[in-house]
Amino acid sequence: MGFEQAWLSYRMNVEAGEWKGISKIYADSRNPIMKNAVSELQKAFREMMGIEPVLCSDSREVKADTGSICFKLDRERKAEGYHIYEEDGNVVIAASSECGWLYGVFELIRQMQMESSIKGMNIEREPVMPLRMLNHWDNMDGSIERGYSGNSFFFDKDEILVEERIVTYARLLASVGINGTVINNVNVKDAATWLITDRYFEKLSQLSEIFADYGIKLFLSLNYAAPVELGELDSADPLSEEVRAWWKERMKLVFTQIPNLGGFLIKADSEGRPGPFTYGRTHADGANMLAEAAEPYGGLIIWRCFVYNCKQDWRDYKTDRARSGYDNFIELDGTFRDNVILQIKNGPMDFQVREPVHPLFGALKATNQMLEVQIAQEYTGQQRHVCYLIPMFKEILSFHTYAAEVNDTVEDIVSGKTFKQTKCGMAAVANTGNDENWTGHDLAAANLYGFGRLAFDPSVTAEELAGEWIIRTFGKDKEVRETLLFILMNSWRAYEMYNAPLGIGWMVNPSYHYGPSVDGYEYDRWGTYHRADHIGIGVDRSHHGTGYAGLYREPNASMYDNPESCPDELLLFFHHMPYDHRLRSGKTVIQHIYDTHFEGVELVDEMVKRFEGLEGKLPDKAYRRMLERFHHQKEHSREWRDQINSYFYRKSGIADEKGRKIY
Ligand code: GCU
Question: Could you say which DSSP state residue 62 is in?
């Protein structure tokens, strides 16, 4: 399938005269990263301005010139940082490494697309989070777990694809500062278990080389039970000498055969995946065994904390899935090797439209940590509904954990500020596939773009990111910009309004997680209950209930524990409340449910109406793709509204104050 260039389409016309005055690029482009950087720069000038700056290798002439771009070595700068400034009419990109120059080039192109002035330009940046990664859940048969934009462009029929598209993929990632990617699903089975064998080394090396030339490290998801499933040993016990020796040999082989390999991501003892629990060992035992083996090659072991009992009985009110990540890992704090990073989902459940921040953030003090978010919109409209997630990520990052006097937010923790760590950062479950536009919904690309930019520089606002993404993707037209900005900035709020209310989550159809089904998971084994009866709804996670609220540091623990101080949007996550309880907003729970569901649909109608006004102003293909999705969202948001309102009207017997139609 063909593919578009997303925000690197360089189709807009940059008119600013200053930029047109650039006629030379001074660079030594023998290094492959520099070669890519320079050719990107030339492409941008050619496509946006129809000019082709000449490439010169001798930078001694620069001083005598104006209207050139040159690269300068600045050893003081951090490896991925850059400084772009104007000097006598020339643009200088200073960095200490090729990666810094590459990022500098993409920054300059962004400035060009935004038509910033060259005169007096002075931009100094370095990434705030050391690791900025994508996690693809791609299977080797070509399908994608929770994929909503076609099939995998990495795999098909158990083979690895190395296609032209990969280069554009790498450019897109590098352009927003993403420096690592895990290409296969965390649920490692069948052929994927063999990725660490010579069956796949050649193709993996090719991929890894393409990525390396864009400053990106290749990572793989690993099957914890590989020694057994590859038929070589009959145990995967992390304390067995034989198993340890096997991994040492294996890591040696893999790291020498695949240059630039960053390491491995592991989902163990979770949702049926094997892990150290089978042998009565801890997650530290498991992770440390792999880390020890990967250590000589600088390899990282990224170990996921998404560990919970997925065979719960709904009658059991004591077991709380929300507690499980914390309970499984807290005692292991400080026992992991230095090249282990724990990867923690943003919330304690599973990427719902609203969840509290995972209580492990701020609790773990002596362990490398990474934040995992999901831009694949599994529970937020599956890339058929528009749902711009950056405002949610901003909230998560700015959450105060109170783990330290200063620098105590989630952002501080995963940037390494709080506990002085260098192996930390943020990962997003990817939303890409082989669809022509990469992300199914054209507007979902704003999540990919925003994620990378945010991990590099969390100080940018969600609105700024949306705004620049729109300009870079669709050009400068004011109406286009204002309309799409309105849609993006209201989309998460709208989705939350017609979805499960007040932080309770779920209420989706089991297994594929799309569309409303209030009791879909209620009597199932997954630990995801809303506990609605005729009097009220919500899970009691206070000290009267599961005690989950107490896992936070003060004052968060008390704030969540008390229904009077618990924020409305999370009330039902923490408390079981009667339908006539008055929220802090002044509305009753039941009236809030009715109102938000009606208003959420009205907001969608407004978004769709405004979008339709853009006909003729957007590329036709993109317009039609989006229009089809918007029409679906309009219908589907009504289904959410009616299912949820009818369910709670029938359960509670309380009528809508405004007398609207509820079935
Ligand atoms: C969710 C998702 C699964 C995925 C899992 C994970 O439960 O539905 O498809 O495997 O998260 O993060 O491991």
Answer: G
Name the pLDDT band for 17 (thresholds 50, 70, 90). Answer: confident
Ligand 1 center from residue 184 Cα (angstroms):
13
What distance in angstroms lies between residue 273's CA and the mean position of ligand 1's atoms?
A: 11
- Average pLDDT on 147-167 reads 98
pLDDT at residue 606 greater than cutoff 90: yes
- What average pLDDT does this structure show over 11-15? 75
Q: How many Å lie between the centroid of ligand 1 and the Cα of residue 343?
A: 14
Give the model's pLDDT for residue 11: 80
In the predicted model, what is the mean pLDDT of residues 83-95?
Answer: 96
- pLDDT band at residue 57 under the 50/70/90 scheme: confident
CA distance 29 to 119: 26
CA–centroid distance, 146 to ligand 1, in Å, is 8
pLDDT, tens digit, 9 for 90 and up, residues 279-334: 999 999 999 999 999 999 999 999 999 999 999 999 999 999 999 999 999 999 99
Indicate the top mutation candidate among 270, 271, 343, 379 to test ligand 1's pocket, ranked by most ligand atoms within 8 A of CB. Answer: 271
Q: What is the pLDDT of residue 66?
A: 82
Distance CA 514, CA 633 (A): 12
Which ligand 1 atom is nearest residue 267's CA?
Answer: 13
Closest CA to 144 of 473, 516, 433: 433
Angle of helix 589-612 relative to helix 478-498, nearest 10 degrees, comes to 150
Q: What are phi and psi of 156, to 5 degrees?
A: -155, 135
Question: What 3-state DSSP class applies to 293?
Answer: helix
Q: Which residues are marked as active site?
A: 271, 350, 378
- Band of residue 272 on the pLDDT scale cut at 50, 70, 90: very high
How high is the pLDDT of residue 18? 86
C-alpha 623/C-alpha 31 separation (Å) is 40
Cβ-contact 180, 129 below 8 angstroms: no
Average pLDDT over residues 65-87: 94
Nearest to 300 by CA among 308, 291, 292, 309: 291
* CB atoms inside a 10 Å sphere around CB 16: 13
What pLDDT, on the 0 to 100 scale, is given for residue 582? Answer: 98
Block residue for tokens 């799409």: 484
CA dist 170 and 215 (Å) reads 9
Residues with C-beta less than 6 Å from any ligand 1 atom: 145-146, 186-187, 267, 271, 306, 350, 378
Contact 135, 186 (CB under 8 A): yes
Which residue is closest in CA terms to ligand 1's atom 12? 306
Complete DSSP assignment for 376-434? S-TTTTTTTS----HHHHHHHHT-B--SSSSS-BHHHHHTTTTTT-SS-EEEEE----S
Q: Is the pLDDT of residue 50 over 70?
A: yes
Kindly tell me the sign of the dihedral angle through the C-alpha atoms of 236, 240, 246, 252.
positive
Helices (H), ranges, 330-374: none
- CA of 400 relative to ligand 1 center, distance in Å: 27
Q: Whose CA is nearest to atom 11 of ligand 1?
A: 350
Q: Which ligand 1 atom minimizes the distance to the CA of 372?
A: 12
Please name the residue whose Cα sits nearest to atom 1 of ligand 1.
350
CA distance 188 to 222: 6
